[in-house]
Structures are given as C-alpha cells and as structure tokens.
TrEMBL record:
Organism, scientific name: Pyrococcus abyssi (strain GE5 / Orsay)
SUPFAM superfamilies: Dimeric alpha+beta barrel
Listed InterPro entries: Dimeric_a/b-barrel, Tscrpt_reg_AsnC/Lrp_C
Pfam families for this protein: AsnC_trans_reg
Superkingdom of source: Archaea
Limits of the Transcription regulator AsnC/Lrp ligand binding domain: 14-73
Protein name: AsnC family transcriptional regulator
Amino acid sequence: MDVFILLVIRPGLENEVYEKLKNRPEVKEIYKVYGDYDIVLRLSIDGIKALDKFHDEVLRKLPGIELSETLIASSY
C-alpha cells in the first residue's frame, strides 16, 4: 500500500532528518518542500501494522520531527 507522510521539522534539522530517512527501504520517494510542511515521503508498505511500526520505530525516534500527517492512498 502507498502512504504519504507530510512532516514539519524543527528549523535547522531538515537536512539531518532527510538524510536519515532517504535510504530507508520503505521510502520510495522523499522531497524537501516549501509550504506548511518541510518533507514529504512516499512509502510502500505491507499494511497498517507496517505503518504503525514505521511511525513507532522510525519517525518517533528521530529528533526534530515536530508534526506528521499521514495520508493513505486510495484506489477509488
């Protein structure tokens, strides 16, 4: 399943967070962006449990992430 995660990063830590996420096997695309969010990720994962694991074991352990918004892609 494809998932998009929008991240707000503490100013000055954008590059550090980007570098730590870019080579993760779940991350298929990653972009630094302008606007309300600082980084956008596209993940390809095997269901909600894998998404929970990514949030708990990866995102929540990275210093600098202030907010995340997760969007699960639909096929409708």
